[in-house]
Amino acid sequence: MLSKQTVKYLKSLQIKKFRKEFGQFLVEGEKAVLEVLDSTIEVKELFITESFYKEHFCNIQSVAYTLCTSDQLGDIGNFKTNNAAIALCTIPEMGVVDWLTPGWTIALDGINDPGNLGTIIRIADWYRIPQIVCSEDTVEVYNPKVIAASKGSFSRVRIIYGPLEQLLRPCPYTIFAADLNGISIYEQNFLKQGVLLMGSESEGVRINDRGISLQKITIPRLLGLAESLNVGVATGICIDRIVGSGH
Q1: Which residue stretches of the chain have pLDDT < 50?
Q2: Is domain 4-90 annotated with CATH 3.30.1330.30?
Q3: DSSP symbols for the chain
Q4: Is the dihedral of CA 87, 93, 98, 101 positive or negative?
Q5: What is the pTM of this model?
Q6: CA geometry: angle 122, 127, 133, nearest 5 deg
Q7: What is the C-alpha separation between 27 and 25, in angstroms, rounded?
Q8: pLDDT of residue 63
Q9: Which superfamily does CATH assign the domain made up of 104-246 to?
Q10: pLDDT at 247
Q11: Is 144 left (phi over 0), alpha (psi -120 to 50) or beta?
Q12: Sequence ranges of the chain with CATH classification 3.40.1280.10
C-alpha cells in the first residue's frame, strides 16, 4: 500500500531540482523497467501491478517492491496509463569522456527538447555509439520525457555534461559539425573514429572555434522546401552515413 508521503516523494521526482537534491529518478513502463533491471543502474524499489509481479517474478526477486493499482501508477508517474511498473532508481555518478575507446561520439550543443534527446540516445544505442557529450544547457537525461523517449537505451549509453568546448578540446579526432553551409555528408569521407556535433534547430552549433577545429557537414536538401530537419532525424541520417562510410 502506498502512503501519502511516498506518493508525494515519487511525484516530486518529476521535477529536476528534486531529482538533483535526492539523487534519484523514475523509470516507467514494462519494457523500460525490465531494461533497467538488466542494467548496472541501481534500482532502489519497484512499484508494480499484480499482473507485472506474476509475469516477471523471476526478474524482481532481489528488489524491494510495492504492489499498486494502475491508477496509482498513473498518479505517481508521467504516463497517463501504466498497468505495469515504475522503478525508483539511483542517479549514477557521471563518468568522464573517454577518447581511448574505439568508435564515434555524438556531441550535443543546446538540445532542449526531451523527445529529441531520447531519440538521439536510441540512435546511439542502435549504432553502438558508446557516449554522448552534452553542453550544460542540454536537457537533462533523467527528465521523464527523455527516459520515456529513449526506450531503455539511456542505460546503455554514457551521457556526459559539461562546458562543451572544454570537453571536446582534448579530442584527438575530427569533429564534424552539422551546418547548413557544410560539405554534403555524401561527399565527405568518414573514418572509424570521430565526433558528430549537433546543435539546436533554432541556433545551430554555437561552439567557439578557439582551440577546436570543426569540419562542417550538411545533409543536402533534395528538391524539398522544408527549412530544416528535426535534430533527432538529422542525427539519425548523419550517423547512418558516418557508420556506413567508416565500415
Answers
A1: none
A2: yes
A3: ---HHHHHHHHHTTSHHHHHHHTEEEEESHHHHHHHHTSSS-EEEEEE-HHHHHHSGGGSTTS-EEE--HHHHHHHSS-S--SSEEEEEEPPPP----SSSSSEEEEEES---HHHHHHHHHHHHHTT--EEEE-TTSPPTTSHHHHHHHTTGGGTSEEEES-HHHHHTT--S-EEEEEEEEEETTTS---SSEEEEEEBTTTB-----TT--EEEEE----S---S---HHHHHHHHHHHHHHHH-
A4: negative
A5: 0.92
A6: 65
A7: 7
A8: 92
A9: SPOUT methyltransferase, trefoil knot domain (3.40.1280.10)
A10: 52
A11: alpha
A12: 104-246
Cell of 92: 549514477
3-state secondary structure labels for all residues of 207-226: CCCCCCCEEEEECCCCCCCC
- Structure-block grid coordinates of residue 110: 543546446
